[in-house]
Structure formats: C-alpha cells, structure tokens
Design brief:
The protein is an alpha+beta fold. The protein has 17 helices and ten strands. The relative contact order is 0.18. The structure holds protoporphyrin IX containing FE.
Length: about 475
C-alpha cells in the first residue's frame, strides 16, 4: 500500500519534563509522550510525579512480560473481598469464570454468529448511506457492536434499546474506575458534596435495590456486599474519582437487573455448547460452577468490554480513511487489504491505551525498583509504537508486515476473549463501508474533542459529524 503517514497525526510537543499519565493531558496526543518515555533509559520504569506507588511500563518487551506474568502483575487492582468482575481478579476464580465465557467464543460459535454480524453491519452501513450527513457514533460506530452484543445475549436490539445500553455503559465506565481511576490529582476521600450525592443516588435507587434483593435473595446480596467491601484498607488506590458514581449507580443496577431477568426467564434451553449465552450461564449455574451473581456480573461486564472498545476501533478507522482518501480508494479496489489495515489501526490507535496491574512482590527492572503492592500502568499504546518491535513505530503503515504482533488485545491469561469477534466486526464494517460508499468525510471545521473521562484511556472522539456519499 502507498500511504505511510510520515509523522504522528497530531502535533509534536516539545519540552516535556514529566508525564502525569493519569491526567487527561496525553489522551488526545499520546505519541510524543510515548517517544519521550522511550528516550530516557532512566524512564524505563517511570514513577508518576507526586505519586508514591504508581509506576509506568511502556516498552513493548516490558509490557508484554508484565502481561504474561499474572503472578507478579495481578489484575486484582481493587482490594475488595471478592472481585466484582471476573476480569479484575486472578487465579482459580478468574480461570473458572473465563473458561465458561470462552465457550461463547469458540470458532464454531463465532462462525454461527457471523451471519448476524454481517446483517447488523449491512443495516448500519445502509442507514449511514441513506442519511448521508449524520453523526457517526449514533448511526454506525455504536449500533454495530451493541447490535452484536444484544443479539448475543438475546436482548432487544432496536434503536431505543441500543441508545440506552450505550448511555448506561458509558455512565458505568466513567464511574467504574473509582479505585483505579485517572484524572486530575485529588483526595482519596470523597468530599462532603460527593458523599451527599452518593447517598442521594443510593436513596433514589432503593426500588432497584429491593428488586435486586428479591431476585438474588439474602445469599446473593451477601455475595454482592463482598464485592464492594474492602479487604485491605492499607492499599492506596490511584486517584479515586467519586464524582461519577451517582450517575453510574442507576445504570449499573439496571443492567444487572436486565441480565438477571434474562437468566431467570430463560431456564429450559440447552446450554451445553455456548451457542446460547444465557442458557450456557444457566447451565453452569445449575452445575454449581458459577453463581447467579457472578453470571449477572459477567453479562454486564461483557456488555461494556465489548462495546466502547469496538466503537473506538470503528470510528478511528473511519476518521483515518476520511483523512487519507487514497487509502480509502485502495481498500475499495482491493478489500483483501482490509484485514491488515485493521491490525495497523489497532496497533497505531490502540483503542484502550492502558491497563492497570498491582504488584504482588517487589520487581527490579534495569536497576529500577517497583515495590510490592504498587499500581503499574501498562501503556499498551506506547508499547505498540515501540521502534524496537515495530520499525518506524510512529509511522502508520497499512502494509506493515508484523502489525498483528500488537498488544491491543493484551496478552497472557487475560488476553481479550472477544478479539476474534472484534476483528470480525471491524473487517465486515470496513468492507461494507468501502464497498458501498464512494467517498467519506469528517466535518473538521471545529476541533474534534477526544473522550477524556473514561479511566481506561479509551481512545476515541466524543462526536463525529460525517458525510458519506
Ligand atoms: C477492538 C476491540 C477490543 C479491544 C481493543 C479489547 C481490548 C482488550 C484488552 C487489552 C483486554 C485485556 C485486559 C487485561 O489484560 O487486563 C481485554 C479483555 C477482555 N475483553 Fe476485550 N477488547 C475488544 C473487544 C472485545 C469484545 C468484542 C468483547 C466481547 C464481546 C471483549 C471482551 C473482553 C473480556 C470479557 C475481557 C476480559 C478477559 C479476562 O480478563 O480474562 N473485548 N480486551
């Protein structure tokens, strides 16, 4: 392919003196910060300024090594008695639930899902073309992944439901990282106003709590309590952000109830092979391999793990192609190039730029020490542009041979369980787009705003007004 974007797509930043990765500063323009981190040998392990226990790893080999050493770099970042989400824990509990969920994503079950994915993609792309001038997230980048997830879980997939899941998932994502959060530096305790807002939100949600209690019983409520109860109070949590909790509580409870209702009313189907997600969760629940509360939380987790990630990838592909019309035409002429293009997109515009880990022991790297119980931010985006692994890593090269070696889906025991489904959606969506549209454009008359309030470093724009012909 011809195109090689010769420099990072955003402006260069000079005189970087320090990097507060938890602030929103590098969200819009991470590349110069990644370059700066790599430029100093003493920054190989980088301690965040003004933080005692937060470190960064950013080189490809270091990030990959940390991802594959779950014993040392633990996913149990939130020190509650029991993890609220299976992905935020390690060891037997993680393996037990992951092995059930993995049955939804076997090659056989993904093959069965492909016709659904194609139909959802075709409908969304047709809608985009018919509108011609519209907002991309609302009409394409959100309905595709949420349509696929709704179909997977047997949830309503019409427009109003999709808008509701999107709203809820975003509100939860904002609120979720209260204990592993990012944003400007702030106190570890909620302010009086935040405490009052949280109490009011709890009060307002009493009817939902009662409904939940009726459905999961005392045992389920006790289990839920262990998921919010801290086992260790001595562990510092990075930048807890209490501001978004009130707005996230109602949506989280609603999604939990939605999955509970599905689990309770869908009991008699055969769930042995993973092709029906809810039936499978029920099957393993009856066997005693997963509790009702764990099944409900797994459903809710997959809904937000499989949504904004794919939305980010799809929208970034659109923007890149709109800015590089020659590449758009090349993909149109040769759709076989789309698969590698998607891999380069995942590498260069890593949809989730960072993941957190907590050290279970002290680690020494390059003579630099990370203490036990420290938070380590694994900079997936920076690792993916490391020139040691990817020649001219800060150059977007759609024909790059080793693009697929990126870490955008993680590595090791927590490797993204939905990676194949995500790739399937992106390839289908781009094939439909370049196949049907003759040209695409993004309205950049006003500066585009990046999302900066999702703590996992999701890399996407807030809103995109587009023209598709
Ligand atoms: C472009 C899209 C996606 C990206 C970039 C992405 C990225 C990731 C990454 C980096 C991880 C590893 C997290 C860690 O190491 O702690 C992960 C885990 C996970 N992903 Fe994805 N993901 C995407 C799409 C999906 C989809 C479509 C689904 C499901 C429908 C999904 C479900 C999950 C789940 C359940 C986990 C947790 C796995 C575990 O901890 O064992 N993801 N994802």
């Amino acid at each position: 392919m011809q195109e090689k974007t010769q420099s990072c797509p955003f402006h260069a930043i000079h005189n970087i003196k320090e990097f507060d990765a938890l602030d929103s500063v590098a969200r819009e323009n991470p590349w110069p910060y990644s370059d700066w981190l790599r430029a100093g040998a003493d920054r190989r392990v980088y301690k965040l300024p003004q933080e005692d226990t937060i470190y960064l790893l950013h080189r490809f080999d270091d990030v990959k090594a940390a991802l594959t050493d779950a014993d040392t770099f633990s996913n149990k970042i939130i020190p509650t008695v029991k993890s609220p989400f299976f992905a935020l824990t390690d060891g037997k509990d993680h393996q037990r639930i992951r092995s059930i969920i993995a049955t939804f994503f076997t090659p056989n079950n993904l093959q069965k899902r492909e016709a659904d994915v194609q139909q959802i993609v075709q409908e969304a792309t047709e809608n985009l073309l018919q509108k011609g001038q519209c907002e991309l997230f609302e009409n394409w980048a959100v309905p595709i992944p949420l349509g696929v997830l709704a179909s997977m879980f047997g949830l309503p997939g019409h427009e109003a439901s999709i808008a509701k899941y999107h709203h809820h998932a975003v509100a939860i994502n904002r609120a979720l990282f209260v204990t592993g959060g990012t944003g400007p530096r702030r106190s570890e305790e909620p302010t009086v106003a935040e405490k009052a807002a949280i109490s009011f939100a709890i009060f307002k949600n009493i009817p939902r709590f009662i409904k939940l209690w009726k459905m999961v019983g005392n045992k389920g409520m006790a289990e839920l309590k262990t998921m919010v109860q801290f086992a260790r109070k001595d562990l510092a949590t990075p930048r807890p952000n209490f501001e978004h909790i009130p707005a996230g509580l109602g949506p989280l409870l609603e999604l939990m109830l939605l999955f509970l209702e599905k689990l309770k009313t869908h009991k008699n189907k055969d769930g042995t092979d993973g092709s029906d997600v809810i039936a499978t969760l029920n099957f393993y629940q009856k066997k005693g391999d997963i509790s009702l509360v764990e099944a409900m939380m797994a459903g809710a987790f997959i809904l937000f793990a499989g949504h904004e990630t794919v939305t980010s990838l799809l929208s970034n592909c659109f923007v890149h192609l709109a800015r590089n019309p020659a590449t758009f035409q090349e993909l149109k002429a040769e759709p076989g190039l789309i698969e590698n293009f998607v891999e380069e997109m995942l590498r260069f515009y890593t949809p989730v730029g960072r993941f957190l880990r907590r050290t279970t022991r002290a680690v020494e790297l390059n003579g630099q020490r990370i203490p036990k119980d420290a938070i380590v931010i694994l900079m997936l985006g920076a690792a993916n542009t490391d020139a040691e692994r990817f020649e001219n890593g800060c150059v977007f090269d759609p024909g790059r041979k080793n693009a697929r070696q990126h870490l955008a889906f993680g590595k090791g025991v927590h490797f993204c369980i939905g990676a194949t489904l995500a790739r399937m959606q992106a390839v289908a969506a781009l094939k439909a787009l370049v196949g049907r549209a003759s040209s695409i454009a993004v309205d950049e008359t006003k500066p585009l705003k990046m999302v900066t309030d999702r703590d996992n470093g999701i890399f996407r724009y807030e809103e995109l007004k587009v023209v598709v012909k």
